[in-house]
Structures are given as structure tokens and as C-alpha cells.
Amino acid sequence: VQLQAFGGGLVQAGGSLRLSCAASGRTFGRSTMGWFRQAPGKEREFVAATRWNDRYYADSVKGRFTISRDNAKNTVFLQMNSLKPEDTAVYYCAAEVDKAYWTGQTYEYDYWGQGTQVTVSS
Hints:
Elements: E1 2-6, E2 9-12, E3 17-24, E4 32-38, E5 45-51, E6 54-57, E7 65-70, E8 75-80, E9 89-96, E10 111-112, E11 116-121
Parallel strand pairs: 2-11
Antiparallel strand pairs: 1-3, 3-8, 4-5, 4-9, 5-6, 7-8, 9-10, 9-11
């Protein structure tokens, strides 16, 4: 099983980026798919998750980020708008496959991508 995240880069404050996470090795249509981020010197934190047709967001990104998924392509996306310097971090996608509920806890996710750097300049 492999998750591969890509789409990060350098953008000015107020700009947008779209992250993608392609999964292989199994299907994740019934799984919770999430995005997390980790800034230097900080713990990894929850950003957004989707389970079935439901979506969940951290308060810090509500109204700016949108998570979506294409189950046919086994891919999850994170559209990030109105980016701020404090959004700078390595962004990771993850999949949780065993639970009957969504979760934003890092330790409950089973598979992780390698991370993609997002840098927002002021």
C-alpha cells in the first residue's frame, strides 16, 4: 500500500495550491482519508478529512481549504485558498481503514504518504 502526495510549492500569501494524494495497493473508497501538516518544531496536526460524503476541517482552515476525493481514481485532493504564512508546513495525506467513524487523530491512521512541502511567503 502506498500513498503519494504531490502538488506542494512556494506561493505568496493569498494564493492557492491544490494538493493531490494518489493511493495504490488497495482501494480506499470506504476509508477515512485525511490531510495533516507539520511545521518545523511543531507536532503534526490535523487539517482535513473526508469519510463517505462527509468532510471535516480544523478551525484554522475552515472556509479556506476544501477536501475532496475521487474514489474511481483512488485519489484525494486538498484545495487550499487564501493561504497564509502560518500554513507553511509539510503536508501529509493519510488513510484510516479499520474504524467505523472518522478521526482527526494522527495515531489512528494506518497509512501515510511521504509529505509535500508548502511554503507561503508574506
